[in-house]
Amino acid sequence: MTGPYILVAPNGARRTKADHPALPITIQEIVDTAKQCFAVGANGIHAHVRDQNDAHILDAGLYRELIDELSVQVPRMDVQITTEAVGIYSPVQQMDVVSKVRPKMVSIALSELDTLEDKAELSRFYHGLASDGVEVQHIIYDPAEMHRFEQMVDQAIILAEKPSFLFVLGRYTVGQLSNPQHFDPFYDAFQRSPFSQTGKHMTCAFGARETYCLLHAAEKGSDCRIGFENNLVMDNGEMAVDNAQRVADLVSKLNADSKVKS
């Protein structure tokens, strides 16, 4: 099947093994999870690393170690690092870890780096990534942020010949239930933008309806991000065994939809 690109987000910045014993924390656990998820259909991994206390950290050395291990153990899997601030890191610190790692792929929340007052510094950062061929996935938490992205491109802060976006449905809130319809305002904003023909988009969804949200988004041409960062349960409400089960379930349903439409 030729379908959406699937990125697994196996741990995120906040959850721990207290949330699920199979949530990967160490470098080797993340690598093992990546191998399992690649085997069932994931194309890439959205990677967070943790410190010795299992807390979120933006650390260039740990990222290099993880990327090196993944390149050996699952060489055909793409690796995307995160710059997520989690209320801890400043834009300067976020930019610094990317500059030190120089990954092939990175996700950056537009709203987080846009808080940097020195737009000239921000422009140098984004232009440097473009020159190095780093694929930046711009995280969009609200459809209105698409307009701000357009402004930053017009101001030459961001170079965006073929921009990549992540649409985030929901948040880290108790009882969060993202619905498929939450995707539509993001898609409409993307379609109205100057990037509708050249850009690409991916969707992630918090809560138990994660799969249904992703299937709805995929029908509109969206790639899919799935995993324990956003949701721990299967469609029937039972706790997933691991990240690979979440990926396999999505792949199965995407294949089923494809066969019905063919």
Automatic annotation (TrEMBL):
Keywords: Metal-binding, Transferase, Zinc. Its cofactor is Zn(2+). This is 3-keto-5-aminohexanoate cleavage protein. It comes from Maritalea porphyrae. The lineage of its organism: Bacteria, Pseudomonadati, Pseudomonadota, Alphaproteobacteria, Hyphomicrobiales.
